[in-house]
Amino acid sequence: MDRLSSLLTHFHMHATTYYSGGLCGTIEYDGEDRQGQLHLLRAGRIRIQAERLHVHEIDEPTLILFPRPVPHTLIADTDDQAELVCASLAFDGGVDNPLTQALPGYLLLPLSQLPNLAGNLEWLFQEAFGEECGRFAVLNRLFELMLIQLLRHLMASRSLSTGLMAGLADPRLARALTLMHDAPQQAWSVETLAQACNMSRASFAARFHQVVGSTPADYLLGWRVSLVQKRLREGRPIALIADEVGYESPSALSRAFRRKVGKSPREWLGAAEAQAV
Asked: Domain residues of the chain, as ranges?
């Protein structure tokens, strides 16, 4: 059972490396570019002010991830001797996709706590501070690979107690989530999902709500709506999308979509396109 492939296939991540070197001064991110940010502190010390509220001083090699657009500031002076590699992150399906929504607003993780990333990080730093041709193309792929490894780490370490990633980390729930991800067009019932997890209907429903934070039916609706939003952005007709995500007609899909989002698919797409301009 592959718990991540459907997520990563539908909501693929794209990294763009834009900085590597020493930092002396201040870099501000206002979040208006509607992209996530990933900073790797290789050496030295920096201060991060996140969401205009919290200031963190970091004095060891650290992975700093903002999966969604969050205003923040990086600060260092000459004595800090900070060395950074930074990339912006974009996701198929936009910033409000299930993958980014499953993560906190930001993560600060010392590299010493990420042994499964060690080989990738060594290669990444070698490329970032070297002069090989094509290094930015390599760095972009390494950042993307590192994010997949980070998701694996979060599941293996059970770092998140609630939400999608917590559900995927739970052996009793991961199969149900993976089934819904892999085949959203199926008419999944609580009973069918519970049987797949070798649990009673009542135990499964209670455990799912406790860990994931929603009922199985609400989660399935949210997953389908996320796929519809992605396909609408891609220009696919609503009639084809309806069949792909398990609705007998475009009108049935529109009713479910409005119930979840508060707008029709056409209204939502218009607002999304206006926001992107």
From this structure: 5-156, 170-276
